[in-house]
């Protein structure tokens, strides 16, 4: 059998609807990802003749991209950014700087020397703030702009001493650039380089709109919101509005949909099919549950259910790109990817592999916005004779398909709906939607067609999956309260449109105060625990720092590995580490814990099926993994950064910590900390 593989890359482009009651976008992420990712991703592909991919572009993203024809009217952040600093109020200035400083430091701010210097200043003069604003915007400019746009290149060369005129010219140039993004996708689609799909209008979890009990079908242990309503009419309207916008944008009807968050059930498939949609995609967990068989060989082909072509993503390989390859060079990551997928080409005929993931949020964690990775990967694929890239439209026309008798309800995150339902905060948001819906249905006054349409807009916007993503304790953002306010404002606006007093509940934040730094606790005192693989004494690790991996999920999610918490600390001569989680359940044969010491480049690898000990190292695995490393491993470095990987063959099971690298200062004495 001659090895061959159809490789289907599917990149999901989405932002929630940031428009408030006045129609103004309250956060700048559409604009920033537009100048960094939305043009860049198809451009990177188009540079390699013969390569193909699929892009999903959601309706809120399309509509908000179009608002940048008048940026100062429609984007609150840009209206502040464009002001003379002396005209900003103190509150505006603080929020503006907070938003700018939310940018990834290591990969986006640190490489720009003057921006890094200003980032660490407590107070910025007006002139320094202009420099900070311009450099912040340049930091978000992708490689296409840096390589091809004259003004962007000129401002990079200028480095500092920018003027208000520089800001005005840059803003106009970037808004002009944004207007070229959607036409670029349309052209590539006409040329057959890409397929372009879309998602129900406001990115809702369609199965939960149809029937909230789907949450319990996917996870019998979940808790449902009180007094639920079927929002089936809304679900249908979400699909139909999206189709209408797609036709207006691209001049033809969509052939496929990416259900928001890969959320599917049998009824939603019927809704798509009745409206002319020919294909959808979701996660491997849905396939395995639908077949009641988790044999991986079943994954590598499209399936048909009720006349609908459905593709199921390889979760692990998708996560390699989204979460693991940021820590490797472009050459190493691309070589690893091809090494991992090649056995699929050899194992079965007509294999089709679906790699489906977020197309925008991962790249800011890569060096150079993942330019080196994609360049190396696409070049490698171009010269690999056993690998052919295909679009989802081409997949839908393939003859070699499987057939499903049933389709399990679930999403691409753990195969269930727990990310959007079950937690008290998430359920509270649903209950407020249901209550608002009942109040509108019971309203007996006259409503004009214009007001009715505004009410429909706010209802559909309130059903966006993104609000529920940030509620609960599974994802964290420093902008949680802003998201919470946006959600509740949609419902408040409905009451105001009907000249009704909104219930007081809608003015009470749903979200408990959470900080994105709560996952990390730094060490408080020296420790010298016994390394025995047991959590035998609380006092042994008293004073240790910890990293809670379960809280390290923000705009993206992934398969959550076996390690849930890392403890770390040291004395004068030794660093101590403990890894807790589902350790006892791990298949330890053939698995390794790999430690990368960034300052020295040393890689330490420990087999997880046996202990290890020498004069500089002790490794024991029992109830948990415990490790002692002599500081001699760090050579002349007292301050080091460590990364950890659990590896099985070529598969990277988990990369830790999820935020990058663990910083340890072996010279820290903790003299200012003490226990009573």
Report on the architecture of this protein.
With 676 residues, the protein is α/β, with parallel strands linked by helices. Among the domains are: 424-507, immunoglobulin/albumin-binding domain-like; 520-665, Sandwich (Immunoglobulin-like), CATH 2.60.40.10. 39% of the residues lie in helices and 17% in strands. The protein has 26 helices and 22 strands. It has a seven-stranded antiparallel sheet, with no helix packed on it. Strands 1, 2, 3, 8 and 9 form a five-stranded parallel sheet that branches. Strand 6 (303-305) and strand 7 (308-313) form a beta hairpin. Helix 8 crosses helix 9, helix 20 packs parallel to helix 21 (371-382) and helix 24 (449-462) runs antiparallel to helix 26. It is globular. The N and C termini lie far apart (71 Å). The model has no long low-confidence stretch (mean pLDDT 92).
Structural class: alpha/beta
Q: Show unreliable segments.
A: none
Assign the CATH architecture of the domain at 520-665.
Sandwich
- Rg value: 26 Å
Largest sheet: 7 strands, antiparallel
State the CATH class of the domain at 520-665.
Mainly Beta
Overall average residue pLDDT: 92
Distance between the termini: 71 Å
The count of DSSP E runs of length 2 or more, i.e. the number of strands, is 22
The CATH topology annotation of the domain at 520-665 reads as Immunoglobulin-like
């Amino acid at each position: 059998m001659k090895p061959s593989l159809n490789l289907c890359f599917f990149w999901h482009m989405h932002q929630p609807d940031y428009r408030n009651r006045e129609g103004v976008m309250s956060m700048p992420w559409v604009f920033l990802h537009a100048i960094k990712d939305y043009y860049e991703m198809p451009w990177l592909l188009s540079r390699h003749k013969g390569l193909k991919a699929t892009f999903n572009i959601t309706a809120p993203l399309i509509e908000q991209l179009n608002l940048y024809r008048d940026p100062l009217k429609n984007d609150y952040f840009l209206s502040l950014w464009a002001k003379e600093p002396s005209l900003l109020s103190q509150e505006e200035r603080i929020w503006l700087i907070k938003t700018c400083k939310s940018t990834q430091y290591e990969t986006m701010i640190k490489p720009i020397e003057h921006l890094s210097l200003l980032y660490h200043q407590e107070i910025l003069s007006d002139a320094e703030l202009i420099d900070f604003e311009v450099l912040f915007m340049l930091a978000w400019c992708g490689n296409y702009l840096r390589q091809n746009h004259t003004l962007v290149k000129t401002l990079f060369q200028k480095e500092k001493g920018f003027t208000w005129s520089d800001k005005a010219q840059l803003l106009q140039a970037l808004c002009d650039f944004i207007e070229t993004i959607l036409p670029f996708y349309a052209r590539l689609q006409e040329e057959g380089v890409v397929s372009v799909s879309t998602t129900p209008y406001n990115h809702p979890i369609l199965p939960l709109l149809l029937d909230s009990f789907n949450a319990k079908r996917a996870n019998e242990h979940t808790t449902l919101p009180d007094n639920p309503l079927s929002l089936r009419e809304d679900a249908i309207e979400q699909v139909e509005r999206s189709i209408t916008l797609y036709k207006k944008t691209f001049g033809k009807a969509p052939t496929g949909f990416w259900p928001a968050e890969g959320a599917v059930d049998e009824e939603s498939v019927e809704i798509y099919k009745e409206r002319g949609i020919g294909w959808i995609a979701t996660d491997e967990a849905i396939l395995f549950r639908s077949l009641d068989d988790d044999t991986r060989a079943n994954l590598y082909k499209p399936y048909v259910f009720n006349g609908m072509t459905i593709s199921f993503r390889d979760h692990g390989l998708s996560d390699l790109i989204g979460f693991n390859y940021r820590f490797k060079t472009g050459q190493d990551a691309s070589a690893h990817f091809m090494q991992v997928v090649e056995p699929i080409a050899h194992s079965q005929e007509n294999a089709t592999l679906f790699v489906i993931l977020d197309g925008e949020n991962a790249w800011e964690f890569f060096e150079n916005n993942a330019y080196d990775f994609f360049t190396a990967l696409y070049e490698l694929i171009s010269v690999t004779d056993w690998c052919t890239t295909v679009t989802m439209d081409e997949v839908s026309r393939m003859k070699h398909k499987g057939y499903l008798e049933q389709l399990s309800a679930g999403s691409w995150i753990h195969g269930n709906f727990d990310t959007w339902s079950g937690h008290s905060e998430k359920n509270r948001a649903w209950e407020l939607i249901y209550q608002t819906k009942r109040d509108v249905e019971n309203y007996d006054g006259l409503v004009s067609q214009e007001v009715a349409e505004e009410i429909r807009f706010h209802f559909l916007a309130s059903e966006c999956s993104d609000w529920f993503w940030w509620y609960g304790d599974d994802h964290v953002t420093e902008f949680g309260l802003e998201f919470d306010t946006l959600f509740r404002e949609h419902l408040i606006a409905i009451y105001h449109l009907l000249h009704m007093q909104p219930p007081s509940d809608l003015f009470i934040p749903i979200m408990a105060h959470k900080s994105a730094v709560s996952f990390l606790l730094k060490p408080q005192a020296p420790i010298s625990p016994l390394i025995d693989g047991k959590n035998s004494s609380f006092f042994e690790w008293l004073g240790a720092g910890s990293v809670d991996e379960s809280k390290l999920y923000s705009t993206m999610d992934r398969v959550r590995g076996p390690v849930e918490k890392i403890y770390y600390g040291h004395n004068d001569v030794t660093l101590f580490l403990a890894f807790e989680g589902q350790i006892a359940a791990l298949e330890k044969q053939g698995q390794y814990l790999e430690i990368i010491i960034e300052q020295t480049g040393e890689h330490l690898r420990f087999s997880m099926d046996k202990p290890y000990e020498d004069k500089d190292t002790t490794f024991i695995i029992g109830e948990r993994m415990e490790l002692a490393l002599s500081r001699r491993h760090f050579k002349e470095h007292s301050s080091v950064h460590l990364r950890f990987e659990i590896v099985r063959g070529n598969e990277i099971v988990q990369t830790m910590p999820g935020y990058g690298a663990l910083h340890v200062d072996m010279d820290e004495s903790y003299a200012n900390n003490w226990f009573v």
